[in-house]
Amino acid sequence: MKLIFDKGKPGRRGSSLPKMDVPPENAVPAQFRRRTAAKLPEVSEQDVIRHYTLLSRKNMGVDTNFYPLGSCTMKYNPKVNERAASLPGFAELHPLLPQLRRGGALTQGALEVIYETQRLLCELLGFADCTMQPLAGAHGELTGIMLIAAYHKARGDHARKVLLIPDAAHGTNPASAMVGGFITQTVASDAEGNVDIEDLKKHLGPDTAGLMLTCPNTLGLFDKNVQEVCRLVHETGGLNYCDGANQNAVMGRVCPGQIGFDVMHVNIHKSFSTPHGGGGPGAGPVLVGECLVPYLPVSRVEKRDDGTYTLRYHCEESIGYIAPFYGNFGIILRAYAYILTLGREGLKRISENAVLNANYMRVRLAPYFDQKVDRPCMHECVFSAAPQAKKGVHALDIAKALIDRGFHPPTMYFPLIVHEALMIEPTETESKETLDEFIDALIEVVKLVDTDPESILAAPVTTPVRRLDETSAARNPNLADI
Ligand SMILES: *Cc1c(COP(=O)(O)O)cnc(C)c1O
After folding, report:
1. Which residues of 116-134 are buried (b: 16+ CB within 10 A; e: fewer)?
2. What are φ and ψ of residue 148, in 5° steps?
3. pLDDT per residue over 203-218, tens digit each?
4. Which residues approach ligand 1 with their CB closer than 6 A?
5. Across the chain, which distance is largest between two alpha carbons, in Å?
6. β-bridge mates for residue 184, sequence order
7. Which of 93, 170, 304, 339 has its CA 20 to 30 A from that of 220?
8. What is this structure's pTM?
9. Which of 48-52, 73-77, 223-227, 467-471 has the lowest mean pLDDT?
10. Distance between terminal CA atoms of the chain?
11. Which domains does the chain have, with CATH numbers?
């Protein structure tokens, strides 16, 4: 495709501005004025529209194609929530507007949204309190870990330096634990994909600060031993952290705060309706049980007896600031709209449909791949393309062949404990017809491994570029030559 800069013709225009009625020397101080004209393309409005529309069609997104990207919940987000987030009364707020009294009416609504979203999440997940400030899931993890550290410190329990992390945890868990100043130890999974209780017991001791459980874990499984795991950790004096980034598997069905978790984060940019392609923005609220409430970060939104809302900046034992202002407000607003439009029953139906879709996928595809664990999954199913790899076609090749058939590839080579992993998350919103189309395409690809493997190794052939060196493509992207 030609660059927009190469399309111009001198004198062609796409805009008409009113005649300037300010003398130029008054409009921009001399030192900031250009000395030579900018080299802008001279193009018509139609040229610009066609150029950008064609560019957008080269992009694959959840609004155009099925996107089975496990673990990231790249799901369809209802457009009504975008509308809520763009209401001018919210979208045009400045975070430095006064919170109360004089001019306070301008921010009371925003404070109410933060307060109410916290309250709804606490009710849904069974916790005492919540902070909406963390700006991503991993940021929520770090916040939660800082809360655990503050708890042990306040008790004078300085020996607790180890966070236990099962091998089926998300990769951000050990990273956050290290950044938070802890040492990590890995706990093995048993043959069914649960935490191996005997291995856990070997690791528990007076240095245990706590355990971080990704729930559901990265095998897409709900740990059957979860209550026993939490009990054992508590018995040794540690706290339990729940990585709840993927709530669409369990929301309305499980109350983590009531089965032994002391602290948890949720990714509202995944489960609660915010598109997050390209890596952001995000929001990872952290929920806590009573024992951690005093340490929550500031500022805190509080409701007064007269029904108004205020921000409290001074809490004696707080871990302090973890982000400027009050979190990614637009994302909080979408989550609030999402929870209110679905309601208690709607949220339950989300997790039912997410689990149903993933298990439909799992059962129909099971004959063609290996599985580390053969039992019902939650929101995603994980296969191993080991049988195909033996014949020279790898998970990566299968993923590329799916692109030619109109599907975004699933997650590959993750979780690390599965050889040649393909992790498929259909999400709750996809219809049976779409799932069948995807499954049929995948079966067609697998059959070609025996009859025409070359065609798979050559994929993709329908895209503007073929196979790239993915590392250098990410470091030195060529955005022009397509
Ligand atoms: C996505 C994810 C995270 C990290 O969330 P970010 O917002 O990307 O920082 C952590 N844990 C799990 C299980 C996840 O799926």
Report:
1. bbbebbbebbbbebbbbbb
2. -60, -45
3. 999 999 999 999 999 9
4. 71-72, 136-138, 170, 172, 214, 243, 245-246, 267, 282, 284
5. 81
6. 163
7. 339
8. 0.90
9. 73-77
10. 5
11. 4-57 (no CATH), 81-341 (3.40.640.10), 352-475 (3.90.1150.10)
